[in-house]
Amino acid sequence: KKKKKKKKKKKKGSGKKSKKKSSGKKKKSKKGSKKKSKKKKSKKKKSKKSSSKAEPIESASSINKTSRINTAAFADELFNLTGELQASNRELARATRFFYQEEPKKQVVALDSKPFFSREDFEKEARLNPENLYVQRQLGMHYEANGDYAGAKDVYLREVAKNPYNPDTHFFLGSLYATLGEYQKSKNAFEEALYLDPNHGATIEAMSMFVHTDQQRKLSRDILKLSSEKAPDGPAQRIIIIREKMASGDYTEALNLSEEATEKYPIHTGFIQLIGENHLKLGRVEDAKRSFQRAIKLNPRDIQPHLSLADLYFEQGKYVYAALSFSDAVYLDPDNGDYRYMQGLSYFNAHEWGRTAAAWEDLLHYRPNDAVVRNLLPQTYYVLAVEYNRIGNPTMGRQAFKNALSVNNNTSAWLSGAMGVLGKFYRGKTMYSESLIAYQEVLELSPNDADAYMGIGITYWKMNEKLLARASWEKSLEIKPENNESRGWLILSSQGS
C-alpha cells in the first residue's frame, strides 16, 4: 500500500512539473512575441501563427490522454443506461398497452352507397351453384335491377329449360316479360305456371297488383280467371269476386271478403292491399294506411302498396312522406317517369328545393322533353338562387340561376311562376313582407295573373289585414270568375266577419 501511495505522489508531482514547463514556455513565447512586434506586419502574422501552433503541442498530449479515458467511460456508461432505458420502455409499453389503444373512428356509410355483392359476385355464386334456383333468381334480379334485361332473360330461359315442371321458373320469366311490356309472352308464361299449380301464390299475387294500365288489367283478369277455373276455391276466385263487389260500390262487403281471404291466406299481400283500398273508399284513412304499411312489410318488392301509401300521404298534404314512398316506387321501377315526377312534385310541394331538383334532373334523363318539368325545374332552381343570395352565398346563387337557364332559357315561360312559388314559400315561413314583394313581382311580369291576386289575399289574411285580403280575392275573381279557390276564401272571410 505504501508503494502505491508513493507512485500516486510521483504522478501528481510529474503533473505539476509539466504544468510549470508549459507555463514557462508560454512566458518565453510572450517575450518573443513582444520583440517581434517591432518588426514588419508580415513577420508579426507569421510569429502569431507559429506561437498559436506551438502553444498546444505539449498541453495536447495531456488533454488527449484524459479525454480518451473519460470518453470511453462515458460511452460505456451511456451504452448501459440506454439499454436499461429501452428495456424499461418495453416493459412499460407492455404494461400499459391497453390504456392507450385508440378506438377506431366510426365512418358513416350510406346503406345504399355500396352494394352487398357486385355483378361478379352474383355471377360467381351462380356458376358455383348451377342447381340452386334461388341463387339463379338472385342473379336474374340483379340483372333486372341494373337494366340488363337480356342477361336476366338468358337466366330465366335456362332455368325453364332445366326445370320445366317448376312453376316458379315460368313465373320468373313471365314477370320479366311483363316488366318489358310483352304481355302476350307474359301471359303464356303465367299460364304455364298455373297449369302446374293452379294456386301458385306468386303468380296470383302478382296479378292482384297488375292494375296500372289497361293491358295490365286485361292480363290480370285473364290469368285470375284461368286460375279460378282450375281452382274454384282458390285465391284467384276470391280476388275476382272482391273486385266485382268494389266495381259495384259495395265496399263494405268487399272489405269483409278481403278480411276473410286474409285469414285463409295470411301471407298473401294482395288481399291486404284490397283491405286497404276498401278502407280508403269507406273514408277510414288511418286503417287504410296501416293495411298498406302491413302489405309493404310482408313483401317490400310489391310496388302497388308503395304507390297507394304515397297517394294517401299526398292527399293528406304530408308531402315529405309522399316523396319517400314515391322514392321506394322509383327504386323498384327506375324506368317509370311518372313515379319520378311525383317524387319531385312531392318534394316541390314540401319546399325541399334541392331534393326536387335532384329528382327532376333524373327524370329528364328518361324524358328529356317533359314540358311540365321543363317549366317547374327552372322555378325550383330560381328559388334556390334567391335563397342562396338571401343567406349570403352569391356564388351558389349564380350557379343555381345558370342551372335554371340551362334547363329552359326562355325565362318568360317560368319566371312569373317562380316568383309565385317564392310568395307562397315566404308566406309559409311567416315572412309576409317578402311574400308580398314576390307577388308584386309576378304582377309586374303579368298584370292579370288571378293566382297572384289570390296569393296576395291569403298573405294579407295571415297578416290580419282582412279588408285588403277581400279586395285581392275580389280582383282575382274579376280577372278569372271560375277561380274557385278565391271564391272559397271570400266565403270563409264573410263567415269569419
Walk me through this protein's architecture.
It contains 25 helices and no strands. The protein has helices at 2-36, 41-54, 56-95, 119-128, 133-145, 149-162, 167-179, 183-196, 201-209, 214-230, 235-247, 251-264, 269-281, 285-298, 303-316, 319-332, 337-349, 353-366, 371-390, 394-407, 415-428, 432-445, 450-462, 466-479, 484-496. Helix 18 (353-366) packs antiparallel against helix 19 (371-390) and helix 22 packs antiparallel against helix 23 (450-462). Residues 1-69 and 96-115 have low confidence and may be disordered.
List keywords for this structure.
mainly alpha; disordered N terminus; Serine Threonine Protein Phosphatase 5, Tetratricopeptide repeat; 497 residues
Question: Nearest-angstrom radius of gyration?
Answer: 46 Å
What's the CATH H-level superfamily name of the domain at 422-497?
Tetratricopeptide repeat domain
Shape: globular
The CATH topology assignment of the domain at 422-497 is Serine Threonine Protein Phosphatase 5, Tetratricopeptide repeat
Which stretches are low in confidence, meaning pLDDT under 50 for 5 or more residues running? 1-69, 96-115
| Main pleated sheet | none
Beta-strand fraction estimate = under 5%
Tally of contiguous helical segments = 25
What is the name of the CATH class of the domain at 422-497? Mainly Alpha
Q: What series of H and E elements makes up the topology?
A: HHHHHHHHHHHHHHHHHHHHHHHHH
Q: Roughly how many Å apart are the termini?
A: 129 Å
Query: Helix proportion of residues, in percent?
Result: over 70%
What is the residue-mean pLDDT, rounded to a whole number?
80
Could you say what the CATH architecture of the domain at 422-497 is? Alpha Horseshoe
